[in-house]
Amino acid sequence: MMQNLHVAIIMDGNGRWALHRGLPRTAGHVEGAKTVNTVVEASARAGVRTLTLYAFSADNWARPSAEVAALMRLLRRYLTTETRRCIEQSIRINIIGRRDRLSASLVRAIEHSERLTAACSRMHLRIAVDYSAQHSILQAARRAGSCAQLSTEVFHGLLAEVDHSSPCGPVDLLIRTGGEQRLSDFLLWECAYAELYFTARPWPEFGAEEFQAALVEFARRQRRFGRLADAAAGQAS
Ligand code: IPE
Ligand code: IPE
Ligand code: MG
């Protein structure tokens, strides 16, 4: 039943986690990067089909330049150290979001990881960097132009194209760590019927057990997609 899930995670609370310990915010991001490894592995083990992680929003450019640089360095390090492991585990890496504001060397690293893992089919790992759902939706709408035949599915495909991804279905479960209960411009279109799961636990303290708890909670939810309970049970996969 968990097999075809698209899980998305807003990895929040790194900075506050660090400050509570008297550490610089960047120490929280370093610790958070370790959680990424744990959760990617837990997702693959659980049979999740697509995992989309929010790593850097388009609005995060407004943070101090040293913090932005640290986040970009961590992403680069993630790609260089984890691509091999992803190949071994047949995990396809895909960075979604804008690329025109990233450094040329980071874009090269992204393209390299994507190329090396292109044929991996166990899980699709999408990491959102310089991502804004509103920006993506606007871009896709511009691409659609005045297309009279535009359907939800076609638009979904256009969105994936704009994001440098491939169509991967709507989000089933959206998790946000760190205590805030908002979307912060993440996957606004794709989350139309997503089940929302909020936890106060900061991202550096999130782990395989918490991830599993979110999946258990998701399995308990009754999804109706606007129908009545009995009819929807037959529709949901
Ligand atoms: C999430 O943690 C990581 C990014 C947004 C890049 P934050 O850095 O937002 O941590 P808090 O929310 O300030 O604690
Ligand atoms: C959302 O977190 C972005 C990421 C987790 C990458 P923020 O910390 O930037 O969101 P706000 O500012 O609290 O809404
Ligand atoms: Mg935050």
Give a quick precis of the structure:
The protein has 237 residues and is an alpha/beta fold. The chain is built from 8 helices and 6 strands. The chain has one domain (6-223): Decaprenyl diphosphate synthase-like (Undecaprenyl pyrophosphate synthetase), CATH 3.40.1180.
Provide an overview of this structure.
- This protein has 237 residues and is α/β, with parallel strands linked by helices.
- It has a single domain, classed as 3-Layer(aba) Sandwich (Undecaprenyl pyrophosphate synthetase), CATH 3.40.1180.
- Helices cover 46% and strands 15% of the residues.
- The protein is built from 8 helices and 6 strands.
- Helix 1 (14-20) packs across helix 2 (25-46) and helix 3 runs parallel beside helix 4.
- The chain starts with 5 loop residues before the first strand and ends with a helix.
- The structure holds 3-methylbut-3-enyl trihydrogen diphosphate (2 copies) and magnesium ion.
Structural class: alpha/beta
> What percentage of the residues does DSSP assign to strands (E)?
15-25%
- Mean of residue pLDDT? 95
The radius of gyration computed from the alpha-carbon positions, rounded to a whole number of angstroms, is 18 Å
Quick one: overall form?
Answer: globular
Descriptive key words:
alpha/beta; 6 strands; 237 residues; Undecaprenyl pyrophosphate synthetase; 8 helices; binds magnesium ion; single chain; binds 3-methylbut-3-enyl trihydrogen diphosphate; 6-stranded parallel sheet
Mind sketching the topology for me?
Elements: E1 6-10, H1 14-20, H2 25-46, E2 50-57, H3 65-88, E3 91-96, H4 104-116, E4 123-131, H5 133-144, H6 152-162, E5 173-176, E6 195-198, H7 208-220, H8 229-235
Parallel strand pairs: 1-2, 1-5, 2-4, 3-4, 5-6
Helix pairs in contact: 1-2, 2-3, 3-4, 5-6
The structure holds 3-methylbut-3-enyl trihydrogen diphosphate (2 copies) and magnesium ion.
The site of one 3-methylbut-3-enyl trihydrogen diphosphate has 11 residues, from strand 2.
